[in-house]
Design goal:
Layout: H1 2-13, H2 23-68, H3 73-79, E1 84-86, H4 101-109, E2 126-130, E3 133-140, E4 143-148, H5 150-153, H6 157-179, H7 184-219, E5 221-222, E6 231-232, H8 236-242, H9 245-258, H10 260-274, H11 280-290, H12 297-307, H13 314-321, H14 336-361, H15 365-373, H16 378-389, H17 391-406, H18 410-415, H19 427-436, H20 441-471
Antiparallel strand pairs: 1-4, 2-3, 3-4, 5-6
Length: 473
């Protein structure tokens, strides 16, 4: 704040026409933010380490008091409410303890099994390294207590990073306002504009950018709900995914599911051409075809699951009535994904048809009249007039449909649950299982970012292809 005021004063001294915020002061402002965040982080880390040591020391004192009162070792150890192990069972997997095995092994490997230095009071805390983290430990008679440091379980690093980022944004905004200080009218208009944009910007920051940054942070950690603290892994989660056969199988299934997009677009374009016109029958036909696009995916999945059931499905009953064998639509690896692709076509064709009709309405009728005069038939008019006139619409529908197909989840979750034998285990469902069934949120976040990279790369390549075609006419 002081740096910003100094910059404002310097700008005012230079006069309204040359009012500029000095670059040195701008860097100083951002440096002050970074220094304040780093200082707060170091202070918080030191205080949390001290609190962890004090907590485990008080636990050891409570255990000593319980032992002095005649309590059994196991009952006395539970008084502290901390993970514990008995000195005689540190090297045995049969010991009755609640301490993680890697921590017990680290204490067992320590000199004198964690005994205190000469002259240190009983129950004095010390530290051991286990599982890539620092554990605070203390010994009371033959009982070892351990606590994963609060500097990990209650670290303010993420909050400080968010606060630092917000402060940096405020500094940038202040720089802009300082530049406008010499122009009161422009300053008032700018403040009014930012005031109107602030609610929407806050929502985007809280519910879009914030979760994105948090998921990126999670992807760099081993983060599970059952763990007291995330363990920083760097890019290990991403490296593990490169060798994960199940993940790449899910990506392959998703790519196969995406193949329904061209078929859906062809059907939608044909329907758009057939249902053009203002007759009442055509309007009702368009409405009927569009309904699946606005119906709940869960409801659609339940209905289709009933229709395609092996035992009581309406479709198989009809096949049996005409003397044909029933088909395992959803229970065979050969047909399950194809069945979902067919349902996917049925769900999106109405929406695509409406978009194509809007594109067709934008093509000038003069083009068709000129083509007829030149002797072009229906196919030639479609090829040389309709398709070129719809190229932007086709591109939009293709890109949005591919992105939507990569995000397919509801159909798989309700109808097949990824089966049979993983034949319909698509990427988003695989991410869901990794997060909410196996509680591996770090892996799930890494999968989400990798899926984003795949979709982004596919979209970027399509844009480049379209730009290349435009450049060559």
């Amino acid at each position: 704040g002081a740096a910003i005021l100094a910059g404002w004063a310097a700008g005012r001294r230079r006069g309204p026409a040359r009012s500029r915020y000095p670059g040195v002061i701008a860097l100083l402002s951002i440096g002050c933010v970074a220094l304040a965040a780093a200082t707060a982080g170091r202070w918080a880390d030191r205080e949390l380490r001290s609190l962890s040591a004090a907590t485990v020391a008080r636990g050891a004192q409570a255990v000593e008091l319980a032992l002095a009162g005649g309590a059994e070792p196991a009952r006395a150890a539970r008084v502290a409410g901390l993970p514990w192990a008995h000195d005689g069972s540190l090297e045995s997997s049969d010991g009755q303890w609640t301490m993680p095995s890697e921590v017990a092994a680290a204490i067992a490997a320590a000199p004198d099994r964690g005994s205190q230095p000469a002259g240190a009071p009983a129950g004095a805390p010390y530290t051991v390294e286990a599982g890539g983290a620092t554990w605070h430990a203390a010994r009371a008679a033959d009982i070892h207590l351990a606590l994963l440091g609060y500097e990990r379980t209650a670290s303010p690093a993420l909050a400080l990073a968010a606060a630092g980022g917000l402060a940096t944004l405020l500094v940038v905004l202040a720089l802009h306002l300082v530049q406008l200080a010499a122009r009161p009218r422009a300053l008032r208009r700018t403040l009014a504009a930012w005031g109107l944009l602030a609610p929407a910007a806050a929502l985007i920051l809280a519910f879009t950018l914030g979760p994105l940054v948090f998921s990126l942070w999670i992807s760099l950690h081993e983060w599970r709900l059952i763990d007291p603290a995330p363990l920083f892994l760097g890019f290990d989660n991403y490296a593990a995914l490169l060798a994960d056969g199940e993940w790449w199988s899910a990506i392959g299934n998703t790519a196969l599911f995406t193949l329904h997009v061209p078929a859906a677009m062809a059907i939608a374009l044909a329907l758009a051409l057939l249902t053009r016109g203002s007759r009442r029958a055509m309007r009702w036909a368009r409405l009927a075809l569009f309904l699946p696009g606005i119906t709940s995916v869960a409801a659609i999945a339940v209905v289709w699951k009933w229709l395609l059931s092996d035992r009581y499905g309406l479709l198989n009953r009809g096949l049996e009535r005409v003397g044909l064998e029933s088909v395992p639509w959803l229970t065979s690896p050969d047909t399950a994904l194809v069945s979902l692709m067919t349902i996917g076509v049925w769900m999106v064709v109405g929406y695509q048809m409406v978009v194509f009709q809007a594109g067709l309405a934008a093509i000038p009728r003069d083009w068709y009249d000129a083509a007829r005069i030149d002797g072009a038939g229906p196919w030639q008019r479609f090829r040389h007039v309709t398709l070129p006139g719809l190229r932007h619409t086709l591109f939009f529908v293709f890109v949005t449909s591919v992105i939507g197909s990569f995000q397919v989840f509801g159909l798989v979750y309700v109808m097949t649950e990824g089966g049979p034998l993983g034949a319909t285990d698509v990427a988003v469902y695989h991410i869901y299982r990794e997060a909410w069934e196996f509680l591996q949120f770090g892996n799930a976040a890494a999968m989400s970012w990798m899926l984003f990279a795949v979709v982004f790369a596919a979209t970027w390549l399509h844009f480049r292809f379209l730009d290349a075609r435009r450049a060559h006419g």
